[in-house]
């Protein structure tokens, strides 16, 4: 039986991926910051504590594996954040990078030696299509998702000689209730308030009508089980069409279309 670790497995995409892998016969170790408080545990998932913002927690989690041969790592845990670049608290940005990027990188580093010695392994980073199509007022979140994709893309040919595949799954808009948990940083008299509200309102509406976590999980499982792993998997938000448009159209056109779609296309005079 193969063993998979799924970070952030207590809800949303992580829970859906954990469920799908259990159904396919995997032993699944799912992580949560406090596994004892998981409100709707998935049958067959072994929940363990892991706080990716705490390096001691990461090392303790790996040490407690105690010889478990990990075949698959799904780096899914993360948080969402939004706000004008000018008003993002630096400590909040640092914490977001620790959770969304640095924690996942350190966990990957600690598991790679075993995969390398066994000459097999799959590492799937759950990113976001915003990394490929950045949106105003999401700069910190976009940067974390672009960074985690960058690690995977650059490391692919480092790891392939050892039988290890690493890739990224980029979901588009997903109906997981994430909009209600997104941390917002905007001042009460911010000069960005009107456009910020417009962009985030459109974003929230699109997420409410987005694809299900189950559909994203099917793409993650495909990435896990593909014999020839692709550098990138995208799902939702008309991914085939928009990625084709990005290849064919100038970047400035794509940026303009994105801005207008979110109600922030025109310049503000006198600002």
UniProtKB/TrEMBL annotation:
Domain of life of the organism encoding this protein: Bacteria
KW Oxidoreductase (keyword) present: yes
Per UniProt, the keywords (alphabetical) are:
Oxidoreductase
Q: Does the keyword Oxidoreductase apply?
A: yes
What is a single Pfam family found in this protein's UniProt entry?
adh_short
Which protein family is named in the record?
Belongs to the short-chain dehydrogenases/reductases (SDR) family.
Name assigned to this protein = SDR family oxidoreductase
Species of the source: Rhodococcus tibetensis
């Amino acid at each position: 039986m193969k063993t998979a670790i799924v970070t952030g497995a207590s809800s949303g995409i992580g829970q859906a991926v954990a469920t799908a892998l259990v159904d396919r016969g995997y032993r699944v170790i799912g992580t949560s910051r406090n596994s004892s408080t998981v409100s709707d545990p998935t049958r067959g998932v072994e929940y363990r504590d892991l706080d990716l913002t705490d390096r001691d927690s990461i090392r303790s989690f790996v040490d407690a594996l105690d010889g478990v041969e990990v075949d698959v790592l799904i780096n899914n845990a993360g948080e969402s954040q939004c706000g004008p670049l000018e008003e993002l608290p630096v400590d909040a940005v640092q914490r977001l990078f620790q959770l969304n990027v640095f924690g996942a990188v350190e966990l990957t580093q600690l598991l790679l030696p075993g995969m390398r010695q066994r000459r097999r392994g799959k590492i799937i980073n759950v990113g976001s299509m915003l990394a490929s199509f950045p949106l105003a007022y999401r700069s910190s979140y976009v940067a974390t998702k672009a960074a985690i994709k960058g690690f995977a893309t650059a490391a692919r040919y480092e790891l392939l000689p050892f039988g290890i595949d690493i890739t990224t799954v980029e979901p588009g808009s997903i109906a997981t209730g994430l909009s209600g948990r997104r941390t917002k940083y905007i001042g009460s008299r911010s000069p960005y308030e009107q456009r910020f509200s417009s962009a985030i309102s459109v974003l929230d509406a699109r997420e409410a009508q987005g694809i299900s976590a189950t559909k994203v999980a099917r793409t993650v499982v495909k990435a896990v089980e593909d014999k020839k792993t692709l550098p990138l998997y995208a799902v939702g938000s008309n991914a085939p069409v928009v990625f084709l448009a990005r290849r064919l159209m100038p970047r400035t056109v794509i940026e303009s279309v994105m801005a207008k779609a979110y109600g922030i296309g025109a310049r503000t005079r006198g600002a």
